Amino acid sequence: MIEASEIETKLLDFLKREVFAPEVVVTPETDLLASGFDSMSLVRVLLFLEQSYGFWIPEGEITGDALQNVRSLATTAARVLNAR
Amino acid sequence: MPGKLPLNGCDYLMLGFDHEMRRHGYAGNSCQIELELDAAIAPEFLRQRIALLVNRHPILRARPGGWLMPKWKLPGEDATMPQVRIHREQPGLREKLCDEPLDMKRGELFRFDLVEPVGGRMNVIFTWAHTLMDANSAEHFVALIGREDVPLPAVTPPVSARPQKTFREKFQLARKSVQQLDEFIKNKPRTVGVRFPAAPKIQRFRVERFSPEETARVRANGVKLCGAFGGAQFHAAAAMIELHQLHQRVGKPSASYVLPVPVSLRAKGSVEPLFCNQVTMMMTQLLPAQLDTTANAVAALKPQIAQAMRDGLIEAGVAIADLSRSLPLIPYMFMLKLGLRGEICSFFYGDVAAVTPLLTTFCGANVREFTHVGATTPSPGIGAIFYSFRGELRITVFHLETHFTTAEAESFAKGLRARLLNP
After folding, report:
1. Which of A36, B73, B210, B372 could form a Cys-Cys staple with B214, CB 3.0–4.6 A?
2. Are residues B229 and A35, on separate chains, in Cβ contact within 8 Å?
3. ipTM of the assembly?
């Protein structure tokens, strides 16, 4: 069982390090789209999750609701990873 | 103060394309942004804003120099200042401006043309050298010129913040990219070549505008086929199907089509570094059998993008561009021509997403309409740039008259529009 909080922590670290500019404050509640997150950023996140958990989450699972912020993205990822 | 600044790898590639286009008699690798304003603006105010930025960033009047190893050469005080010109609206003016090359050797890296139509409004046409900046930078730069409330960019050399790699690391990455291209070449991609050698060496464009309802429909279709965030892949897949159909209509179908997908290298949430290209290309290939339905084209494209990222081909593209700087210009141009002769790129595709919200006003006037115009090299001779302004989708389709007729480009654009609405 993978906890959503564990994914959230890893995602936050990855996004701060690899995706967003240093001046962007990234928290679990940060609005991803408003902060410049784009389709290539999503592919990078999916790739990061694949490298971390050995499973490629189909893009179809990532709905608009899932992309609201880091927390909702982590919750979606945990649901899909635990259901595989 | 005279001096020199480096071009990054991507700038260098863009300069190479500029040479290639000019060598064939076209205007060069310059692109345009057109703003339709609701009121006339004062040219003097515009000149003052430009002077402020040019004095702060001398690179804005630099010239590409250095015969063997190109660099930006920063001029002394006698350098040509960027132009602001004023025109009366007349038939054919827009096309004339589109085909007028920038005089980069004299430091003309951008130009503003103010066109006064009837009714007191004004159109602003901003022409910019792709060697200096990319499309996202160009949007931000226009906003900087036109709005005093936008913070000025940092006065630092325009270098990437990406981690530097050793020559050995770059070489290993570049090999991956070359291996991928070798695989693509096995499927014999071919563009149409110059079909009308006697045609004038000009580029033409047309803009497809989508209403808010149509934009929502295109977005919904993209979500259905590609997930919540796959709009760009949907656009690219639709464009490649229409390209294949265009090739079939002109009697030159290709055994495969190579699509370079641009990837922004800027950290999200930042516009800097501003005065250098921060884009690399992720190469993908589509076979005619994959271009029968939009769903099939998307299904062929998506795994290629994921695999390319998995294989580190973004970094490989950066490495190739970086390594190209180490080549003297003449051998590099020879390599570039070899690549173009191999018809590696079948289509120029850009997707810059939403136009910066800063461009709702310019020099005090409201921006009623916004248009991006890209540039294409003699091969493949056609391309499209996708963007949205005030939430409405726009597509500018541009083509070279030596390769496609205006009617053919129009049929491509209309087909693309129909496919996005009804995939």
Report:
1. B210
2. no
3. 0.84
Which residues in chain B are contacts of A40 at CB distance < 8 A?
263-264
Q: Which residue of A has its CA nearest to B233?
A: A39
Chains A and B form CB pairs within 8 A to the count of 65
| Chain B residue closest in CA terms to A26 | B269
Substitution target from A26, A43, A47, A63 for chain B, most B beta carbons within 10 A: A43
B230 interfaces chain A, CB cutoff of 8 Å = yes
Q: What is the pLDDT of residues B353-394, one digit of tens each?
A: 899 999 999 999 999 999 999 999 888 999 999 999 999 999
Work out the minimum CA distance from B228 to partner chain A, whole angstroms.
5
DSSP string, B16-39: HHHHHHHHTTS--SEEEEEEEESS
Q: Which domains does chain B have, with CATH numbers?
A: 3-146 (3.30.559.10), 168-353+381-421 (3.30.559.30)
pLDDT of amino acid B127? 97
B231, B232, B236, B239 alpha-carbon torsion, rounded to 10°: 60
Task: For B134-163, write each residue's pLDDT tens digit.
Answer: 999 999 999 999 999 998 887 776 665 566
CA dihedral in degrees (B301, B302, B303, B309; nearest 10)?
A: 110
* B331 vs B245, higher pLDDT: B245
Instruction: Give me the pLDDT at residue B336, please.
Output: 60
Domains in chain A, CATH or no CATH each: 4-83 (1.10.1200.10)
Tell me, rounded to whole angstroms, the distance of Cα A11 from its chain centroid: 5
DSSP letter at B227 equals: -
DSSP lists the bridge partners of residue B361 as B366
Average pLDDT of the residues of chain A? 90
* Chain B residues with beta carbon closer than 8 angstroms to that of A38: 229, 264, 268, 353
